[in-house]
Specification:
This protein is of the alpha/beta class. The protein contains 17 helices and 12 strands. The protein is globular. Bound molecules: 1,3-dihydroxyacetonephosphate and iron/sulfur cluster (SF4). The site of 1,3-dihydroxyacetonephosphate has 10 residues, from loops. Its EC number is 2.5.1.72.
Length: 330
C-alpha cells in the first residue's frame, strides 16, 4: 500500500520500530537534525509531554507556533491546533503524529451550517473558540481560547451584538461572567460534557477538604459545584498556588501529569465521568503516541496543510486574538 493511501486509511504510517531504540534519544536527535520543535498540549500522554519543547494550553501553543524559528513544528495535539499553527506560520512544515486526532467539538460545528446560522444575525460579530476547523475560523471576526474568552468579549463595546461558537458551555459561562447576551451555537465537547454531577458529589463527600476545579467546557450543572473554573493553564496555576492538598479535577486527565510534577506533595483525583471509567481521556488527543511522534518526525509525515485562501481569511481573527492577549499580558 502506498504511503498516501495508508495515511488516508489510518491517519499515520505504520512502520515497525526496532524495540531496542531509545525513542527519547532518537526524537532528540531528529529534532536537532531537522531543526524541529515539539509543541504538546496538556492532554497528551506523559511521555509526549516529557519530550516536548513546550507544553501548554491552546493559547500558549498558538503563541509559541507564531514565534518559533524552527523549520518544522511537530504538533502533539489535535488537528485544529496543528491547523492554527500552520495558519500562523504558513512557511513552516507542520506535522501531526496522527491525522485522525480530530475533535468532537470542532465536528459539532460544520462550516456550511454555521454560515447559514451566521446569516440570520447580520449585525452580529462572530467570536469562535479556537476548537474549530480552519474553515470556521475563516468565517469569524475574532478567535478566542478558554484563557481569554471573557477578556475578548469584554474588549468589545457593550452594545456590540455577538455570536459565540461552537461551544455552548463555554459560551454560557462567558455570558454569565460578562453579563452579556451571546447568541450561542449548540456545540459541545464529548470529554467535558460527560462528567457526572452525582459521582462528583459523592467524591466531594469522601474528600471534604478537596478543591473541585473545572474547565469551562463542562456543563453548567457541574460548573456550579466548582471552587475554581479555568482553562488548563488556569487549573494548573490554581493547583500550584492553592494551600489545599487535594483536588478533584474536571477536565481531560492528561493535565494531572503536570499538576503532580509541579506539586509532588498534593493529590489529584480525576473527576469521574458518567460511565464505568475512573477518569476521562480524550480519544482524539490520545491517538498520538510516542511511537507515532517518532515516525512522523523521521518520515516528515503526516503533514497538515490548509488551503491558501483559508489561511488568508483565518489568520486575521487569530492574530486579533493574539494582539488582544498580548495587550492584556495573557
Ligand atoms: P484549553 O487548552 O484552552 O484549556 O482547552 C482545552 C481543550 O479542550 C483543548 O482541546
Ligand atoms: Fe476536542 Fe474535547 Fe478532545 Fe479538546 S478534549 S480535543 S475539545 S474532544
Amino acid at each position: 500500500m502506498d504511503t498516501l493511501t495508508e495515511l488516508n486509511r489510518k491517519g499515520y504510517i505504520e512502520e515497525s520500530i526496532d524495540p531496542t531504540l531509545d525513542l527519547f534519544e532518537e526524537i532528540e536527535k531528529l529534532k536537532k537534525e531537522k531543526n524541529a520543535i515539539v509543541l504538546a498540549h496538556y492532554y497528551q500522554e506523559p511521555d509526549i509531554q516529557d519530550i516536548a519543547d513546550y507544553i501548554g494550553d491552546s493559547l500558549g501553543l498558538s503563541q509559541e507556533a507564531a514565534k518559533t524559528e524552527a523549520d518544522v513544528i511537530v504538533f502533539a495535539g489535535v488537528h485544529f491546533m496543528a491547523e492554527t499553527a500552520k495558519i500562523l506560520s504558513p512557511e513552516k512544515t507542520v506535522l501531526l503524529p496522527d491525522l485522525k486526532a480530530g475533535c468532537s467539538l470542532a465536528d459539532s460545528c460544520p462550516p456550511h451550517l454555521f454560515k447559514k446560522f451566521k446569516e440570520k444575525y447580520p449585525d452580529h460579530l462572530v467570536i469562535t473558540y479556537v476548537n474549530c476547523t480552519a474553515e470556521l475560523k475563516a468565517l469569524s471576526d475574532i478567535v478566542c481560547t478558554s484563557t481569554n474568552a471573557v477578556q475578548i468579549v469584554e474588549s468589545l463595546p457593550k452594545d456590540q451584538k455577538i455570536i459565540f461558537g461552537p461551544d455552548k458551555n463555554l459560551g454560557a459561562w462567558v455570558a454569565k461572567k460578562t453579563g452579556r447576551e451571546l447568541v450561542l451555537w449548540n456545540g459541545a465537547c464529548m470529554v467535558h460534557e460527560i462528567f457526572s454531577r452525582e459521582k462528583i458529589t459523592k467524591l466531594k463527600e469522601r474528600h471534604p477538604k478537596a478543591k473541585f476545579i473545572a474547565h469551562p467546557e463542562c456543563e453548567e450543572s457541574v460548573l456550579q459545584m466548582a471552587d475554581y473554573i479555568g482553562s488548563t493553564t488556569g487549573l494548573l496555576k490554581y493547583s500550584i498556588n492553592s494551600d489545599a492538598l487535594e483536588f478533584i479535577v474536571a477536565t481531560e486527565s492528561g493535565i494531572i501529569h503536570q499538576m503532580e510534577k509541579a506539586s509532588p506533595g498534593k493529590t489529584f483525583i480525576p473527576a469521574p465521568p458518567n460511565n464505568n471509567c475512573a477518569c476521562n481521556d480524550c480519544p482524539y488527543m490520545k491517538r498520538n503516541t510516542l511511537e507515532k511522534l517518532y515516525l512522523c518526525l523521521k518520515n516528515g509525515l503526516p503533514e497538515v496543510t490548509v488551503p491558501a485562501d483559508i489561511i488568508d481569511r483565518a489568520r486575521k481573527p487569530i492574530e486579533r486574538m493574539l494582539e488582544i492577549s498580548a495587550k492584556l499580558g495573557l
